[in-house]
Amino acid sequence: MAAADDVDEEDDGEPVLEASGERPGQPPVLLDAVSQGWVDALASRGVRYEEACSRLHAELLRIAFKELHRRRGRHRISGPELDDLAHQSANDALLAITRKAGGFRGESRFTTWAYKFVVFEVSTKIGRHFWRTAGMPLETEDWERLPDRLGMDPETQSQARELADALHRAVDEVLTVHQRRVFVAVVLHAVPLEALVKEWGTNRNAVYKTMFDARRKLRSRLEAQGYLDTGAGGRA
């Protein structure tokens, strides 16, 4: 059973179980041969099932390492801890896939569907790593790239540094502890929204509201200090 193309790198939301192929007025979706092979193997028992799980785990582990490498500039995880996180992600993804494989109906290739589970697990575990290390001081380069992430466009390097310093002070001085925690997680560390929601037991709207209020406060401070024109079109 050959592996399909890797999952879309930007899709790190929680995987959604696909609907049944039986739809009123529509023919059932027929699985491609490779996908059908995976579904049949994961529905089997004994040696065939164990071999399928072993092959799938190897693929999931490859994707986990690839996703961690893609995000290496944001999580700063390395060495044995990175290896452990990759293996945990692959293990948890495999468990979820084997439980839900019977609901797969072929709206994408099976491996594309399966890879979404491991990407989600990596995202969640990076989020948990962030919460464990949230008290660590942020490095200078974190703040220097913040204006760009907020859609601001300083014309020179010196202006970029000044704006980054002003943002750093504003985050410390005008945001509540909760707002700062969410803002730093989402904007600086790029912790996926689904990971925040799962870790806090909250919902998307609550996170959106916190980010909206934080950005509004930061923009007001920067406008008052002359770093941004009133009504400027950035996304802060």
Q: Can you characterise this structure?
A:
The protein is mainly α and 236 residues long. It is built from eleven helices and no strands. The radius of gyration is 22 Å and the shape is elongated. The N and C termini lie far apart (47 Å). The C terminus is likely disordered.
How can the largest sheet be summarized?
A: none
General shape: elongated
If you average the pLDDT, what whole number results? 78
- DSSP E strands, number: 0
Q: Termini, distance in Å? A: 47 Å
Rg over C-alpha atoms, rounded to the nearest angstrom: 22 Å
Q: What fraction of residues sit in β-strands?
A: under 5%
- Helix amount, in percent? 55-70%
H-E order: HHHHHHHHHHH
Number of helices: 11
The poorly predicted ranges are 8-12, 17-25, 135-141, 232-236
Structural class comes to mainly alpha
Write the layout of secondary structure elements.
Blueprint: H1 33-42, H2 46-70, H3 72-75, H4 79-100, H5 110-132, H6 140-144, H7 146-149, H8 157-174, H9 177-188, H10 193-200, H11 204-224
Helix pairs in contact: 2-4, 2-5, 4-5, 5-10, 8-11, 9-11
Keywords, separated by commas or semicolons:
single chain, 236 residues, mainly alpha, 64% helix
